[in-house]
User: Which sequence fits this backbone?
């Protein structure tokens, strides 16, 4: 089995304690997994908790070193694999993510918040101070950034796993791939491909239901169309998404300009293709 | 109906709806699993059929670019619709199929090829365009040094029950591709449903395997009037076909128009969503995915449908060969109607119209071809850019 190799000296974490030395006789060091939370709802971490059956199978093979949702026990870094949930919304977070990067050999972001800025990226289009005044009794205590940005805007990210929330099967796939040094099977094609692989009847063509499937990144397994609903774009834009080309058809299926603005202004509004379409209507 | 294929085959016979039911029972007795059109989720899809009641009795369909709707016909027709979002390729070339698995064993890896034996299918209601699609896919999967054993097993084991189209959709253009609406060859049995003067079926055997069912079920020859009416049914359908592709010199036309401005125009609408290729009955592209479990003790290789519209499909080290929507759409159209001829000696399009109906933005291959022909850049295409 491919074990996690030690980080190359060039990438070795500077501020972390060195990993225990391996002697010829000792058992191989267990790969250490850490989970970090930034601005988010915890839903993606819960997908990981939901993997308990799969994780039990590897209980002896990986060490869960830092996962607050599951256990308060914390093992110091460096970590072989860090899963990062949430977006950067405060000056403190912007510093903390640098530290996470330094102590992580591989850093994988999970979910729409970490990969696109999340629903909270709607602040990028508004006046944050006005929000703060409206929501908090003592706005002076609030130290926040004007924007919500994905992790990749701050540090190098080795892999992005999309979704709001992420798909548990895809998470297990990414963990397996990283543990065994292979490429994750997480294609960046449209949700339509997943519909067709499942044998779904297209809800847009056959029912006239507005559906974001053609512009949306696969990964959910086409859940909504499988239950006779249009896709809401939870996984963000597919590669080279073309929402402008879909626009007349969303209109034909009953969405007016305001509705189009709203459907593109959700969890992935911070990603370029959806942001452009959101702003084009408004 | 035309003369039957060989003098050893029985003359066409006439079946009632009751005979059709008995035919289904006989199929099961002979070990066939009947699969064919049935209603699901607002469309006519292909699935396992237990009797004629599972067929879309009395239903028809209306199709146009980007739209498909079921309609009640007001009769009890068993085959009063055309092709839907699925095709027979899902049985011959399943969307996902495990190729092998491997387990860690003492001293190495133990490989197990996937060896499922496919069922013996009876494909019920195969249209003219679809018969041609089967023959087009045969060239990809059965010819050359790397035949697909699973495809071969399904193809050789299955019974093909064709239907002459009694209706067409606005998206059909079989006549201009020379594939329909009449079924000509490549079937075991061919049915024509007659509705005027009472529901009945003219049944023609196209092979010894099909002839067996004709002999067993009904020794009753079809009357000349029934044969004449069957011929009129297909003629009437042919007369309803509205879409067409100008067939002459398509290969050359496309080859000299690789820099046509229309490619950019269509790319501005195209979603690169891959629906067209996945519904197309002749598209055969796949990719393989290797998966391993968390323990690393077990691995599998799966083949699944892929498409020239995905970025990964043309990904080599350093990037995708066809990164832009323009290059992907151009690949699809030039392959279907042009380079398919170089590769397989036939057109890759059989005119079924699925890619037109099921494109979520209603892109129409016949319209794209016509637009290129209308503004042919000429023999030295690349230099004659307007
Ligand atoms: S394209 Fe022709 S053969 Fe195919 S369904 Fe339509 S009418 Fe029938
Ligand atoms: S290219 Fe379109 S019309 Fe031609 S066979 Fe494929 S799906 Fe049918
Ligand atoms: S032609 Fe239509 S179905 Fe095909 S990839 Fe483009 S948008 Fe999708």
Assistant:
């Amino acid at each position: 089995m491919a074990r996690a190799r030690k980080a190359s000296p060039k990438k070795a974490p500077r501020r972390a304690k060195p990993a225990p030395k391996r002697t010829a006789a000792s058992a191989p060091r267990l790969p250490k997994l850490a989970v970090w939370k930034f601005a988010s709802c915890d839903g993606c971490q819960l997908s990981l908790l939901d993997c308990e059956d799969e994780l039990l199978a590897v209980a002896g093979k990986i060490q869960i070193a830092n996962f607050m949702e599951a256990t308060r026990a914390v093992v110091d870094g460096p970590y072989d694999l860090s899963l990062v949930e949430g977006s950067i919304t405060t000056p403190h977070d912007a510093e903390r993510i640098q530290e996470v990067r330094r102590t992580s050999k591989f850093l994988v972001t999970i979910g729409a918040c970490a990969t696109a800025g999340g629903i909270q990226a709607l602040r990028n289009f508004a006046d944050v101070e006005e929000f703060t005044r409206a929501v908090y009794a003592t706005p002076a205590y609030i130290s926040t950034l004007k924007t919500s940005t994905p992790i990749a805007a701050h540090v190098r990210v080795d892999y992005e796993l999309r979704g709001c929330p992420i798909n548990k099967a895809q998470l297990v796939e990414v963990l397996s791939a990283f543990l065994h040094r292979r490429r994750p099977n997480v294609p960046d094609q449209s949700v339509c491909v997943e519909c067709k692989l499942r044998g779904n009847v297209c809800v847009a063509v056959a029912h006239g239901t507005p559906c974001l499937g053609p512009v949306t990144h696969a990964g959910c397994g086409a859940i909504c169309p499988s239950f006779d609903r249009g896709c809401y774009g939870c996984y963000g834009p597919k590669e080279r998404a073309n929402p402008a080309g879909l626009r007349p058809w969303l209109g034909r299926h009953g969405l007016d300009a305001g509705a189009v603005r709203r459907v593109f202004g959700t969890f992935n509004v911070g990603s370029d293709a959806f942001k452009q379409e959101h702003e084009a209507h408004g | 109906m035309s003369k039957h294929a060989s003098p050893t085959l029985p003359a066409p016979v006439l079946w009632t709806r009751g005979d059709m039911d008995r035919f289904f029972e006989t199929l099961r007795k002979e070990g066939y699993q009947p699969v064919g059109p049935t209603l699901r989720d607002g469309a006519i899809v292909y699935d396992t059929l237990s009797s004629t009641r599972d067929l879309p009795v009395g239903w028809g369909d209306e199709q146009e670019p980007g739209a498909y709707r079921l309609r009640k016909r007001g009769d009890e027709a068993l085959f009063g619709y055309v092709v839907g979002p699925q095709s027979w390729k899902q049985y011959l070339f399943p969307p996902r199929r495990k190729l092998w698995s491997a387990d860690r064993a003492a001293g190495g890896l133990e490989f197990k090829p996937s060896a499922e034996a496919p069922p013996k299918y009876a494909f019920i209601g195969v249209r003219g365009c679809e018969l041609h699609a089967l023959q087009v896919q045969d060239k990809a999967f059965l010819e050359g040094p790397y035949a697909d054993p699973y495809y071969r097993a399904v193809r050789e084991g299955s019974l093909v029950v064709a239907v002459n189209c009694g209706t067409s959709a606005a998206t059909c253009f079989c006549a201009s591709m020379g594939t329909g609406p009449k079924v000509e060859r490549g079937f075991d049995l061919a049915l024509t449903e007659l509705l005027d003067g009472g529901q009945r079926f003219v049944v023609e055997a196209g092979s010894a395997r099909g002839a067996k069912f004709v002999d067993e079920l009904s020794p009753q020859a079809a009357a000349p009037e029934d044969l004449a009416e069957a011929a009129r049914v297909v003629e009437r359908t042919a007369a309803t076909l509205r879409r067409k592709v100008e067939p002459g010199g398509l290969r050359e036309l496309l080859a000299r128009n690789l820099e046509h401005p229309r490619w950019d125009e269509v790319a501005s609408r195209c979603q690169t969503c891959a629906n067209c290729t996945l519904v197309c009955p002749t598209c055969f592209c796949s990719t393989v995915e290797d998966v391993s479990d968390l323990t690393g003790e077990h691995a599998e290789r799966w083949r699944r449908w892929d498409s020239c519209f995905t970025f990964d499909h043309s990904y080599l080290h350093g990037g995708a060969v066809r990164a832009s929507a323009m290059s992907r759409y151009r690949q699809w159209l030039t392959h279907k109607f042009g380079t398919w001829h170089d590769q397989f000696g036939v057109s890759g399009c059989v005119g079924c119209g699925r890619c037109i109906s099921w494109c979520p933005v209603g892109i129409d291959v016949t319209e794209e071809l016509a637009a290129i022909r209308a503004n042919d850049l000429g023999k030295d295409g690349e230099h004659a850019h307007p």
Remarks:
- Chain B is about 30% helix and 25% strand.
